[in-house]
Specification:
Layout: H1 6-13, E1 22-24, E2 35-41, H2 48-67, E3 76-82, H3 87-101, E4 103-108, H4 112-125, E5 129-131, E6 148-150, H5 155-169, E7 175-181, H6 184-200, E8 205-212, H7 220-229, E9 233-236, H8 240-253, E10 258-261, H9 267-270, E11 281-284, H10 293-306, H11 316-335, H12 340-347, E12 351-354, E13 357-361, E14 368-369, E15 372-378, E16 389-390, E17 394-396, H13 398-401, H14 411-415
Length: about 425
């Protein structure tokens, strides 16, 4: 099955039925049928706060694309489904959207299990999936499907960025404890931390490697293990509600080691922790503290439009979802079509000067290659928030965090295909 040309696509859309989901209308009608983007977002449950940021980034990008005339004159229409952080639900809703509303691009999704479900649908129906999250290595490695294009780092890349910052900010650390969520991403992150430590700071000893259920309410057993281990630093890939619980309970427990968290720079996490987070480390593809003229302009334009909202400043999630949406539009424009094969060719090897810096979509595995912004939580400065936030970004260069093609587990990267 192939996607239609823009001409055929326009004809088919004229008789498309409305999707029974949250729908964001396209720009004013100019006689050209819209191109539909589908955002797969957690809109219910304890993890919905983070995905509210992702949705805001997608919406901001769509508004900008439409303000500039859409994609070759075709406005972008944004549909949204609630994944409920449930792979089966996400798959069912995505199939319905693709079949009912002629979706041309799927953008998502928090949770590697959810992204797997989206990629399965994208592969079956020939719809590209532009991933702003879902970092488990296998998705662009051994489990690779051509439908996936990941703007987020892989778990190994993200873990390496935290270790890079750890070595820079805390060169005296000798003992590290690993604490991660007990699902595919958490396990992959633990392996990533181990590999990065062995490569970047081999003198560090790993004194604990423990997993906890996603959505854990009580972290005290794990905090006791950390204290007993003698660790002087903790590395975690926890995110959202789990990370808030970990940091709050660690503070109440009197945990001595500092924490390096791959998603710790999230303001919705830090505002619940306050001064206790000072000295902790976060990292991601995008941070608002990246020091560049392009990012300064992005931060200013975002704040002008969102100052009175729950997301007054762009976050890591905002930045990644914004970039993912811009790349989707750019690829369709360059392809001159929504045909999957043509969009895939437009994305493979694509170089783009994003708000996070120059990036490349590596051809063989569709994995973004970009230096990663890291930052240490500093006392309140008032620049962004009235609580401690990360300082000016230290960029972990791509050469320090990239997974070499031959080590991805993706056969395309070892045979020269793509």
């Amino acid at each position: 099955m192939t996607r239609p040309s823009l001409k055929a696509f326009v004809a088919s859309l004229l008789c498309a039925t409305a999707l029974a989901a949250t729908t964001h209308p396209a720009a004013a009608d100019n006689g050209k049928a819209p191109i539909t983007f589908l955002a797969a977002i957690i809109e219910s449950g304890p993890f919905k706060v983070t995905d509210g940021q992702n949705l805001a980034g997608i919406e901001f990008a769509v508004d900008q694309i439409n303000a500039k005339g859409g994609i070759d004159g075709h406005p972008v229409k944004l549909d949204v489904i609630d994944t409920e952080l449930n792979a089966a639900v996400a798959r069912r809703k995505t199939v319905d959207a693709v079949l009912q509303d002629h979706v041309s691009v799927i953008i998502g999704a928090s949770g590697s299990d959810i992204l797997r479900a989206l990629v399965a649908v994208g592969q079956q129906y020939h719809v590209p999936v532009i991933a702003f999250a879902g970092e488990v290595d296998e998705l662009t490695g051994a489990e690779f499907q051509p439908a996936v294009f990941r703007v987020a780092s892989s778990a190994t890349m993200h873990a390496a960025a935290i270790v890079y910052a750890l070595k820079h900010d805390y060169p005296g650390v000798k003992k590290v404890f690993l604490l991660n969520e007990d699902y595919s991403f958490g396990h992959q992150s633990a392996v990533g931390f181990q590999k990065a430590l062995a490569r970047l700071d081999p003198g560090v000893q790993i004194v604990g490697d423990v997993f906890h259920p996603r959505g854990a309410a009580d972290f005290s057993p794990y905090l006791q293990q950390i204290q007993a281990s003698g660790a002087d630093f903790v590395l975690t890939a926890d995110w959202g509600a789990d990370l808030v619980q970990l940091l709050n309970q660690a503070n109440s427990f009197g945990l001595k080691p500092r924490i390096g968290g791959t998603f710790l720079a999230d303001p919705d996490v830090l505002k619940h922790v306050g001064n206790a987070a000072i000295g902790d480390i976060g990292a991601d593809v995008y941070e608002p503290t990246i020091d560049s003229p392009q990012n300064d302009a992005f931060v200013a334009s975002w704040h002008a439009a969102h100052a009175q909202t729950d997301v007054p400043w762009p976050t890591a999630s905002v930045g990644k979802s914004y970039i993912a949406t811009q790349l989707a539009a750019l690829a369709i424009q360059r392809a001159g079509s929504t045909d999957f094969d043509k969009v895939e060719k437009a994305l493979e090897g694509l170089q783009y000067n994003s708000v996070a810096g120059p990036l490349t979509i590596r051809s063989c595995d569709h994995q973004v290659q970009i230096g990663q912004a890291t930052g240490e939580v500093e006392p309140t400065t008032g620049k962004f928030y009235n609580f401690p936030f990360i300082g000016t970004a230290l960029i972990a260069p791509i050469g320090a965090i990239a997974v070499p093609p031959a080590q991805t587990g993706n056969s395309r990267c070892t045979t020269g295909n793509g």
